Structure formats: structure tokens, C-alpha cells
From TrEMBL:
One of its GO terms (biological process) is lymphoid progenitor cell differentiation. GO terms for cellular component: cytoplasm; nucleoplasm; RNA polymerase II transcription regulator complex. One of its GO terms (molecular function) is DNA-binding transcription activator activity, RNA polymerase II-specific. This is Basic leucine zipper transcriptional factor ATF-like. Belongs to the bZIP family.
């Protein structure tokens, strides 16, 4: 009977050896999976950082454009006020406008209402 005992010991040893190899293989797969996951997470964080940096630069660029447009609006508004003042002062002295008082002002002040020959007339040299 000792023989059968030896054979069972041998069988247990081969099972434990096989089990040990399996555990080692599983452990290597876990380590590889963790490393792969760590690299993927690092790349993901890097992409998020790049996206945030890009959005920040785009935001700064849009803020600069917005400020420039606001300055342009302010300048154009001031220019409109100036031209309105010039036009109002001109209307009181313009003999051409006073003789055509039956024509609505929006018709008088369209670009077609002022041919180039009229613009150089004395009326516009006040």
C-alpha cells in the first residue's frame, strides 16, 4: 500500500505544480491588464488636459474678438452720432432739401437720391 500512497503524493505534487503555474499565469495577466489600464488612463487624462487647454485658448481668442467687436460698435455708434449731428445742422441750411420738402426724408437720403454731381454741389460744402 505504500506504493499507492506514493502515487497519490506524486499526483498531489503535479496538481500543486500545475495549480502554481496557473496562479502564476493568472497573476501575470492581472499585472499586464493593470499596466495596460494604467497606460490607457494616463492617455485619457492627457487627452482631457489637451482638450481643456484647447478650449481655454479658444475662449481667450473669442474674448479678444468680442472686445474688438465691442470697440468697433462703440466707434461706429460715435461716428453715427457725429454724422447725424452734421446732417441735422446741414438740413437747416440746405436749399435743396428745403425746396423738396414734400419728398419723405428716407427717399432724400438714400444713395440713389444723391448722385455724385449733387454731392459736389455747394449744398454739401457747409
Amino acid at each position: 500500500m505504500p506504493h499507492s500512497s506514493d502515487s497519490s503524493d506524486s499526483s498531489n505534487f503535479s496538481q500543486s505544480s500545475s495549480s502554481s503555474k496557473q496562479d502564476s499565469s493568472d497573476e501575470m495577466r492581472k499585472v499586464q491588464r493593470r499596466e495596460k489600464n494604467r497606460i490607457a488612463a494616463q492617455k485619457s487624462r492627457q487627452r482631457q488636459t489637451q482638450k481643456a487647454d484647447h478650449l481655454h485658448l479658444e475662449s481667450e481668442d473669442l474674448e479678444k474678438k468680442n472686445a474688438a467687436l465691442r470697440r468697433e460698435i462703440k466707434h461706429l455708434t460715435e461716428e453715427l452720432k457725429h454724422f447725424s449731428t452734421v446732417l441735422n445742422s446741414h438740413e437747416t441750411h440746405c436749399s435743396v432739401l428745403q425746396t423738396q420738402s414734400t419728398v419723405p426724408p428716407e427717399v432724400l437720403f438714400t444713395p440713389l437720391a444723391f448722385p455724385q454731381s449733387h454731392i459736389s454741389s455747394p449744398c454739401f460744402q457747409h
